[in-house]
Specification:
800 residues, alpha+beta, 7-stranded mixed sheet, 21 helices
Length: 800
């Protein structure tokens, strides 16, 4: 909400400057998001009256003006504004005056004619963006007076960010109530008085949906002059509150809404037929709104209608056919209470919002309708004239909100806030904000006023006491007590350990939305039944992700568009899936019924292996580089890999990842289709594994370092093409005796000397004993045992 500080000070005027007032409101829960002056600094500008405005003798587009600035002598000023005319009152910057931007006014010659000052437009004074000519002033502006005083420009606009529960502060009266309660300054409410009817014009009101609109007041005002101009003071209040002046009657309803917090609407009574009905839509009904939008009201949208047709979306926006115009002579004024449940979300469903709906969906004082219509009536009579009819009111008291007493235990207040406070002090604080308090033996009984929709529980009252007492006045007490050391185990790692490990290998963490495009799920994950969002924040974020890989691919595409080709990123996050046929979701406390949300770890590497440097030649990252990073993450535990086919990954360059025989994820190059579609350049490499698998670790065990020499033997095996190196390596490790310390694959060959359909795999075998030197016979026997086992297990043989 935005408002003028000077307007606020007409209700309550504490001895605080703008900065202190803003801090006070922020600390009380009315967060001041922004403050800005109404006008930039300038000086030497006064009210002037143009006495003469004649054509410049040497220029077609300039005028030679004689101007009265209240000094008794007329000033000669050359002006180029097209609207300059005799009798007009305008701002005049005298010689020596300083305009915004430190522009100093000097006497000058323009086309051979001397000019002693400058007549100003609103743009030149920083008051508006209007370039149409001079800023016209009111007729009653005193000649020679400082323009800053006349236009009340020494003012500050406050923009406060209200939480949805504080709808009572969506008005100057509400904010003033808070400031008065916080400072103890006197509160001067808006002048409210009953306007007696002077005519008989009236219109019946029927509540066809009383549970949605339990109170509706209406009044006919005849003989209105709708052509009059809105007073300047009211225009200034509206502009400084972020509203555009439109029409005298409409401006009055907006002014009262800002002043009191009650939205009003004015209909052209001549275009109404019969009684006013507050009802739900009929089949096929349509309505053109004031914003020229044609809508077909939903079945649950409340309407204001007459006997013939729908007139307005209740509490949201009026219809264009019955709006007030310059030709209007008879106004029907509406002041109603619509329940928050009836208005919430309705405006957004039609693709817009309004000041009225913003207030009604948060809650409006249900006792304010009559005072508001009386206040608006008085302003209309003062500005536009007219004859008021009687106020017609329809009520359904059984559907009006009921304010229940809330019990407050002083002991509980002291316990929650951690301060000592007497029950009488609590009562005084609560009564400052117009809460009714009964003091019982062990508790206070508090009844909130009609304008407070947020006081329902004891905690709400404790919050009120805390902010009224002042958060700054609550001491910060250091906690004291025994602390126990938590158990720590080397067999478990934390998420941060995993992050540090990957960061140490050159990766950067990203955090992506869990909401993704359904096309991603279909293309990358072959997921034709993703978990859809009921109310997505954007059309391209309509489902929950079942994989982290698409998000990393999108990160890479974004970086490449910014000439960042070397990208190494990872993400820890949840994925969201439906259980497969026959699966049940175990209750870990993290699941939503019917779904499970495993935590995953994914990483992507693209571009060169190392940053550009002189010591190493550039080489593109490949499958084995990322495989090494993954193995380093799990070390000393050993991973195994097996070919796999996934929609997101390149056929033949992807593998499942196994840990201790259990599949925990996948690794591979991104599929060429997605590389081309997302313009990724060279194919990036990705992996995705279960995060929980990375969090367990092997405890380190001390092992004796052998002083005996190691024996190295190379073993070249010929195996069928379909046998993977991993399978051969596993077979060798199965048969290896205790003296075999390490088996490493160092060469793969196929071609001349190897029969068709086979390949050669060369392994280096390191053997060593801690107590003695191995003899050749022992080494030969170990190698023979390995060969026999490989022949039985995978059909391999020694290469000759």
């Amino acid at each position: 909400m935005q408002f003028s500080e000077n307007w606020l000070r007409t209700f309550v005027n504490p001895p605080l400057d703008s900065g202190a007032l803003g801090h006070l409101m922020t600390m009380a829960g009315l967060e001041v998001e922004e403050t800005h002056p109404v006008a930039p600094p300038f000086s030497g500008v006064v009210v002037a009256r143009i006495v003469e405005a004649e054509k410049h003798p040497n220029a077609d587009k300039l005028k030679l003006c004689k101007v009265d600035v209240g000094t008794g002598e007329l000033l000669q000023i050359v002006c180029g504004a097209p609207n300059a005319a005799a009798g007009m009152k305008v701002p005049c910057a005298k010689v020596g005056g300083v305009l915004p931007g430190d522009f100093v006014i000097k006497a000058a010659k323009l086309r051979g004619v001397e000019s002693f000052g400058m007549l100003c437009s609103g743009r030149e004074l920083g008051l508006s963006e209007d370039q149409g000519g001079l800023h016209a002033l009111e007729e009653d502006a005193p000649v020679g007076a400082d323009i800053r005083e006349v236009l009340d420009l020494d003012d500050t606009c406050f923009v406060i960010k209200l939480t949805p529960n504080r709808a009572d502060c969506l008005s100057l009266t509400g904010v003033a109530r808070e400031v008065a309660a916080l400072t103890g300054a006197a509160l001067t409410p808006a002048p409210l008085s009953l306007v007696p009817p002077a005519g008989d014009a009236r219109r019946d009101i029927v509540l066809d949906a009383p549970e949605r609109c339990p109170r509706y007041c209406g009044r006919v005002i005849s003989g209105v002059n709708a052509r009059v101009q809105t007073p300047g003071w009211m225009k200034d209040c509206l502009k400084r509150s972020g509203l555009r002046p439109i029409h005298a009657v409409v401006d009055i309803t907006n002014y009262v809404m800002l002043e009191l917090g009650q939205p009003l609407h004015a209909f052209d009574n001549a275009h109404l037929s019969g009684a006013i009905h507050v009802r739900l839509p009929r089949s096929g009904e349509e309505l053109r709104l004031l914003n020229e939008q044609m809508v077909k009201p939903a079945p649950d949208t409340l309407l204001i209608a007459d006997e013939a047709r729908a007139l307005a979306l209740a509490g949201i926006m009026g219809g264009s056919e019955t709006g007030v115009t310059d030709e209007t002579t008879e106004v029907f004024l509406e002041s109603a209470f619509f329940t928050p449940e009836a208005i919430t979300g309705q405006a957004r469903a039609y693709g817009f919002t309004s000041d009225a709906s913003h207030r009604f969906e948060r809650g409006v004082d249900f006792q304010l309708q009559r005072p508001a219509i009386e206040r608006a009536t008085q302003l209309i009579l003062d500005i536009c004239g007219g004859v008021p009819g009687p106020v017609e009111e329809a009520r359904a008291d059984e559907h009006l909100p009921c304010r229940e007493e809330v019990a407050l235990r002083p002991a509980r207040v002291r316990q929650v806030l951690g301060i000592e406070m007497d029950a009488e002090v609590m009562r005084e604080l609560l009564e400052r904000v117009h809460l009714t308090v009964r003091n019982l033996a062990v508790e206070l009984r508090v009844t909130p006023p009609a304008f407070r929709f947020d006081i329902e529980t004891e905690e709400d009252l404790i919050e009120e006491i805390a902010r009224l007492h002042g958060y700054d006045n609550i001491p910060a007490i250091e906690p004291r007590g025994p602390l126990g050391m938590l158990a720590s185990t080397e067999s478990a790692r934390t998420d941060w350990d995993v992050r540090h490990c990957l960061a140490g290998r050159g990766f950067q963490e990203v955090v992506n939305y869990a909401f993704v495009d359904s096309a991603w799920e279909r293309d990358f994950c072959a997921n034709d039944a993703p978990i859809r969002l009921a109310n997505p924040i954007a059309s391209q974020m309509d489902v929950m992700r079942s994989s982290l890989i698409p998000g990393l691919v999108s990160n890479l595409a974004t970086n490449r568009k910014r000439q960042q080709n070397r990208v190494r990123v990872f993400e820890l996050g949840r994925c969201f899936m439906r259980p497969k046929q026959g699966e049940t979701v175990s209750g870990s406390g993290d699941e939503v019924p019917g779904f499970y949300q495993p935590r995953r770890l994914a990483a992507l590497a693209a571009g060169s292996v190392l940053p550009e440097q002189w010591g190493e030649s550039a080489r593109a990252v490949d499958f084995f580089d990322l495989k090494g990073d993954l193995e380093a993450l799990f070390a000393p535990r050993v991973l195994t890999f097996a070919p796999v086919s996934r929609p997101a990954l390149h056929p033949g360059r992807a593998a499942s990842v196994f840990l201790e025989g259990r599949e925990i994820g996948v690794i591979g190059e991104v599929h060429p289709v997605w590389v081309q579609r997302f313009e990724l350049g060279a194919a990036p490499v990705v992996f995705e594994v279960d995060l929980d698998a990375t969090l367990s670790a092997l405890c380190p065990e001390a092992d004796e370092i052998s002083r005996m020499p190691a024996v190295l033997r190379d073993l070249a095996l010929v195996v069928p093409m379909g046998v993977s190196a991993q399978r051969v390596l596993s077979a060798l490790r199965e048969a290896a005796p205790a003296t075999v310390r390490e088996i490493v694959l160092f060469d793969v060959y196929q071609g001349k000397g190897i029969e068709s359909g086979c390949k050669s795999l060369a392994f280096r075998i390191s053997m060593q004993d801690t107590q003695r030197t191995l003899e050749d016979a022992e080494v030969d026997e170990a190698i023979s045992g390995l060969l026999r086992h490989v022949e039985r297990a995978v059909g391999g043989r020694l290469r000759i």
